[in-house]
């Protein structure tokens, strides 16, 4: 059972991801709707893994990624992006994101990805 | 081939008397005064215009100008064939009026001295109205188009 | 890949590559003076070459790709070697030749012709030769990155490590496979030494995702880990569906050059990928560094100046979208009036509804105006091309020519622009070739050594004026008169002609004043073609000149030609246009209201009145699948109180159309009655415009 922090500015998306994850071996312990909240919740809940939407108001997913990684260099963060955001995904990877999911995602994809990333040492 | 001939036309507009554009329709070769020819193009989309005789197959858009097109085969009552890569439209202009002629293929530009032109025989009934002369050039026989009569649309 | 996708991919390739070529040209021409390229220019040129290389490779145009690669290498060297002694003229010429090649190859590609691989190879060899000459002359340390890349290539495998090749296939539909491949690569670099990978352009070419979907992502690497360890690691990469891992026995870790021509860039990424653990900010492959450097250079933000108008933001829109938008707006206007003037509302007092309807109308009007204005394009697009011509020609002819352009922001309908470009380019060619004298002649005449050609545009009233002038030798009246006389073009006696009249003789067909056919101008055929082109858009041309001082040619283009609001309709595969002013309404008939009168004519009843139905497909023998009235549309047209209902297949939409008269031959034959003229639609097809007075009165 892995703990997850879901970060996305759309409530619908947060719920959708939560539903998928909780059908499998994940427990969503917290969610956040922007980068600032994401950092706070990460520090508070110390989840095993984070799903992070790339484009958000107030602080982008990439900035939040950097900040969380500063705080915890072992943080495991998987980006959630839309098609056409190749440059941003690449930048995220270079800044420490472990992997990424492209919307619209297939359930098996998001589960498999989180599973494999969480299982890495 | 069409491009080569077009180039010749472009370069040689000064000394046009006695020069003819030779083209093929069916088994015969025809000639038309080079002076009437403005360019040669491959067949673009032809828009049919209702109410016209069958040999006026329609109009085309040539760089913004609308040009009526006559199919020589149909004009001469020959069976129509599918247009292919070699089919061309010879764009001509006379008295400020543009007309295009669909021909099977464009062959060459020939220099023909006026003396070599003989009047047409009374043979093929279909074409004779439109032919104003016959030329023998080496082994070749060309039928000269009577531009004025071919354009008399009834 | 579905045929459709292929087509739109090709279209996009053509569009982007042409745009890139244009941009390249602008950079080269802007650089013009001076003997070094600016840093921003080098980076931008490099970036463009890299992009073209990648997309051409993606489309399998390997000759284009490999040539771009060679020029990319040249600029890479220039960038990395600050004191490289390159000759800017020679290097510019390489790029310009490349641009010419691209433009021509794209035409060949568009028409499905045979591509010129030989020419690309030859040019490529020249570039390579030049580059190796530069390298030999430069310092050995000069191209550090190139050196280290080459060194990296040659580094022998560590004692225990072996060469491997792995091909990874990702899960179907996971998206952004190229970035996945990139991420995988970074991971692999942590436990292996990467030699090369295919496709190589995963970072900058999102199109490589498609290739990865088809053929997987292949990496050649060396590692000390065991086969099983490696297999497991690969399988643990998220969303990897299949792993094909082979140990290299004898094949060695050969770079597979045949697939992608990008050997060196691979190694650049590789050496930097390895450093990932340390400085994150340095891990940008060279192309990105180029972008970064370019945007950091405050003075020339090359990324932003794609449209090369520093203070405007401009996006590219596909013409078909614009046309669709225009049609939709046309339909919107009709739909709006169908609602607001709906017969159901007749007689009702609806003040609130009326108010809102007026508001709706105002908005729709504004949208229509805005969309119409989108068709306007600045003349700059045409004028800028003259730069290239002047440069090329003046160099070849050994003349010095300056080009002055004013008023290029003047806007003109996009259809008109197409008719203007050939004439203007031709006129400029003429100026350089015949108008401007040689340096010696000019100096002898007390003129500045460099000739000046000015292109000016402005709009006044309902016309746009474009003037192309030069300060060259002017026209020779005598020669013109002689030539006109020789060609039988003189209609008046020379004495009664004004200078201007004499000069304007040059526009008559069959005229020429140049004695020799030059490479550029042909023999005066151009002038009457200029006349024709301007004529087709309803404009006219005139010329004036002062011997010894120069010549100026003025084109006057009307902004409004006969334009009407027309409704485009289809019958079978034919297009027709009905003037909106003649349309009363259009509707799908209720078969209950259709009957035949005593003479057997089909009639339809509309609100108590009977109207004859005109079946166009029957009258004109047009093949169509729409023969049932319920499958098509009836359009009620009216002229001078007479009304009939025309049966068509469908309404395409309303549009403002430029009326062109029917060709002379057809008019003379008096045979195509029923048509008032024709018009060219956005895609070049012809639509015939109905003569409604004939439609409502001919014998059915």
Describe it for me?
The complex is a heterotrimer of chains A (121), B (154) and C (700). Chain A is an alpha/beta fold. Chain A has one domain: Response regulator (Rossmann fold, 3-Layer(aba) Sandwich), CATH 3.40.50. Chain A has five helices and five strands, in the order E-H-E-H-E-H-E-H-E-H. Chain A is globular, with a radius of gyration of 13 Å. The two termini of chain A are 15 Å apart. The model of chain A has no long low-confidence stretch (mean pLDDT 87). Helix content of chain B is 12%, strand content 45%. Chain B has helices at residues 2-11, 72-75, 147-150, and strands spanning 19-25, 28-33, 37-42, 56-62, 65-71, 88-94, 97-103, 105-111, 117-118, 131-137, 140-145. In chain B, the strands form two sheets. Chain B has a six-stranded mixed sheet, with helices on one face. Chain B has a five-stranded mixed sheet with strand order 3-6-7-5-4. The N and C termini of chain B lie far apart (34 Å). Chain C has 700 residues and is α+β, with helices and mostly antiparallel strands. Chain C contains 22 helices and 22 strands. In chain C, the strands form five sheets. In chain C, strands 14-18-19-17-16-15 form a six-stranded mixed sheet. In chain C, strands 6-8-9-11-10 form a five-stranded mixed sheet. In chain C, a hairpin with a 5-residue loop joins strand 21 and strand 22 (686-690). Chain C is flat, with a radius of gyration of 33 Å. Mean pLDDT of chain C is 76; it is low at 1-5, 139-159, 250-311 and 513-525. Chains in contact: A-C, B-C. At the A-C interface, helix 4, strand 5 and helix 5 of A face helix 7 of C.
């Amino acid at each position: 059972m892995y703990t997850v922090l879901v970060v996305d500015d759309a409530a619908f998306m947060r719920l959708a991801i939560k539903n998928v994850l909780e059908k499998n071996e994940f427990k969503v312990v917290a969610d956040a709707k922007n980068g600032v909240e994401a950092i706070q919740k990460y520090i508070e809940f110390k989840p095993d893994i984070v799903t992070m939407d790339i484009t958000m108001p107030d602080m982008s997913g990439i900035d939040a990624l950097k900040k969380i990684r500063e705080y915890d260099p072992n943080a495991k963060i998987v980006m959630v992006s839309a098609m056409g955001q190749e440059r941003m995904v690449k930048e995220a990877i270079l800044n420490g994101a472990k992997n990424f999911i492209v919307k619209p995602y297939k359930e098996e994809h998001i589960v498999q990805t989180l599973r494999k990333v969480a299982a890495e040492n | 081939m069409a491009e080569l001939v077009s180039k010749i036309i472009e370069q040689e507009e000064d000394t046009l008397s006695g020069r003819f554009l030779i083209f093929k329709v069916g088994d015969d070769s025809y000639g038309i005064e080079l002076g009437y020819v403005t360019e040669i193009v491959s067949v673009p989309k032809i828009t049919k215009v209702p109410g016209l005789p069958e040999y006026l197959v329609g109009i085309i858009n040539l760089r913004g100008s609308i040009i009526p097109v006559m199919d020589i085969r149909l004009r001469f009552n020959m069976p129509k064939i599918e247009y292919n890569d070699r089919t061309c439209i010879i764009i001509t202009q006379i008295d400020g009026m543009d007309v295009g002629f669909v021909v099977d293929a464009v062959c060459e530009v020939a220099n023909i001295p006026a003396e070599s032109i003989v009047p047409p025989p009374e043979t093929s009934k279909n074409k004779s109205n439109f032919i104003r002369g016959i030329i023998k050039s080496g082994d070749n026989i060309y039928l000269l188009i009577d531009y004025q009569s071919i354009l008399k649309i009834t | 890949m579905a045929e459709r996708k292929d087509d739109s991919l090709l279209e996009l390739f053509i569009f982007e590559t042409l745009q890139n070529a244009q941009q390249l040209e602008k950079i080269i021409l802007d650089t013009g003076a001076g003997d070094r390229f600016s840093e921003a220019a080098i980076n931008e040129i490099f970036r463009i070459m890299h992009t073209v290389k990648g997309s051409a490779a993606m489309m399998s145009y390997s000759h284009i790709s490999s040539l771009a690669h060679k020029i990319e290498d040249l600029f890479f060297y220039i960038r990395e070697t600050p004191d490289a002694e390159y000759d800017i003229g020679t290097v510019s010429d390489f790029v310009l030749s490349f641009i010419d090649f691209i433009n021509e190859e794209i035409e060949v590609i568009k028409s499905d012709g045979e591509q010129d691989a030989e020419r690309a190879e030859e040019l490529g060899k020249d570039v390579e030769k030049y580059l190796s000459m530069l390298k030999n002359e430069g310092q050995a340390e000069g191209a550090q990155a190139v050196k280290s890349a080459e060194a990296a290539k040659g580094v022998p495998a560590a004692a225990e490590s072996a060469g491997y090749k792995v091909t990874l296939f990702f899960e179907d539909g996971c998206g952004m496979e190229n970035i996945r491949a990139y991420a995988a690569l970074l991971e692999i670099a942590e436990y292996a030494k990467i030699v090369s990978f295919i496709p190589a352009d995963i970072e900058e070419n999102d199109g490589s995702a498609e290739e990865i979907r088809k053929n997987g992502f292949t990496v050649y690497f060396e590692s000390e880990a065991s086969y099983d360890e490696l297999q497991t690691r690969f399988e643990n990469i998220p969303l990897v569906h299949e792993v094909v891992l082979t140990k290299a026995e004898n094949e060695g870790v050969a770079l597979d050059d045949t697939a992608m021509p990008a050997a060196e860039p691979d190694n650049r990424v590789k050496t930097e990928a390895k450093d990932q653990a340390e400085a994150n900010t340095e891990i940008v492959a060279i192309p990105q560094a180029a972008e970064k450097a370019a945007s950091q250079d405050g003075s020339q933000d090359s990324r932003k100046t794609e449209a090369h108008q520093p203070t405007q933001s401009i996006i590219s829109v596909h013409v078909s979208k614009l046309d669709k938008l225009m049609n939709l707006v046309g339909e919107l206007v009709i739909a709006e009036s169908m609602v607001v003037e709906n017969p159901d509302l007749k007689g009702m007092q609806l003040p609130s509804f009326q108010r809102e309807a007026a508001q709706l109308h105002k908005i729709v009007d504004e949208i229509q105006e805005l969309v119409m204005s989108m068709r306007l394009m600045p003349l700059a697009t045409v004028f800028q091309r003259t730069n290239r011509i002047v440069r090329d020609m003046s160099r070849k002819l050994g003349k010095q020519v300056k080009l002055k352009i004013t008023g290029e922001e003047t806007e003109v309908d996009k259809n008109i622009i197409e008719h203007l470009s050939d004439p203007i380019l031709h006129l400029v060619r003429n100026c350089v070739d015949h108008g401007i004298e040689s340096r010696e002649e000019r100096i002898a005449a007390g003129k500045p050594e460099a000739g000046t050609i000015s292109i000016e545009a402005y709009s006044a009233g309902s016309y746009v004026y474009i003037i192309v002038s030069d300060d060259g030798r002017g026209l020779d009246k005598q020669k013109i008169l002689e030539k006109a006389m020789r060609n039988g073009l003189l209609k008046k006696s020379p004495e009664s002609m004004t200078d201007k009249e004499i000069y304007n003789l040059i526009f008559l067909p069959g005229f020429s004043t140049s004695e020799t056919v030059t490479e550029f101008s042909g023999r005066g055929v151009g002038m009457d073609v200029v006349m024709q082109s301007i004529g087709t858009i309803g404009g006219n041309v005139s010329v004036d000149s002062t011997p010894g001082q120069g010549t100026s040619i003025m084109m006057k283009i009307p902004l409004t030609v006969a334009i009407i609001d027309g409704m485009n309709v289809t019958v079978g595969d034919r297009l027709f246009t009905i003037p909106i002013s003649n349309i009363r309404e259009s509707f799908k008939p209720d078969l209950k209201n259709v009957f035949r009168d005593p003479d057997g004519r089909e009639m339809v009843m509309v609100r108590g009145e009977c109207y004859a139905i005109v079946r166009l497909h029957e009258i004109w023998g047009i093949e169509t699948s729409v023969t049932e009235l319920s499958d098509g549309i009836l359009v009620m047209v009216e002229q001078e109180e007479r009304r009939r209902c025309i049966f068509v297949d469908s309404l395409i939409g309303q549009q403002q159309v430029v009326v062109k008269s029917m060709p002379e031959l057809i008019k003379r034959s008096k045979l195509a009655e029923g048509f008032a003229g024709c018009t060219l639609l956005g895609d070049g097809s012809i639509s015939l415009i109905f003569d409604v007075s004939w439609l409502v009165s001919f014998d059915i």
